[in-house]
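Sequence in, structure out. Go.
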Amino acid sequence: MKTLLRTLLYLALIVWLGAEIFFPIVAATAFGVLQGNTHAAGAIVGSLLRVLHGMGLVSGMVALALLALAPAWGIYKPRPALAPMVLLIAMVGLTVYSQYGIIPAMERDRVAAGGAIDTTTPNDPNTAHFNKLHIRSEHVEEAVLLLGLVTLVLVARAETAKP
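Output:
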């Protein structure tokens, strides 16, 4: 049973981190293939980002639940499980912020700019704000990935904590 629960914990982390690692490759490919139509590429990437966030939220909640229950089930000692739990909460929080804060604001800017950001001038206030939010979104995703890698290391380290 312990092996199954640890496997589920690692699977939840792997799914989320794998998607975080793969997402920039997909985004770059979409913009590369659709060079003449950045609006379509952006729509595809935006849709995929929503899927990534959904996967991340489910994976994060599963991993958090398993880590919270692990000490009671004798899988990990309480203290080594605490740091990964805190990092998972931060990751979920950043994902929620991106999904429900940044993305809707970017969508409002896109609509206010006339439906397609790439048809406006860079000094248009809607475009400038959209670009600012886009950079923030990238930083949030990078932070989620970094925190996820540290979480993975800390979970692996918890495996070796002396009983």
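Check: The chain has one domain: 2-159. DSSP finds four helices and no strands in the chain.
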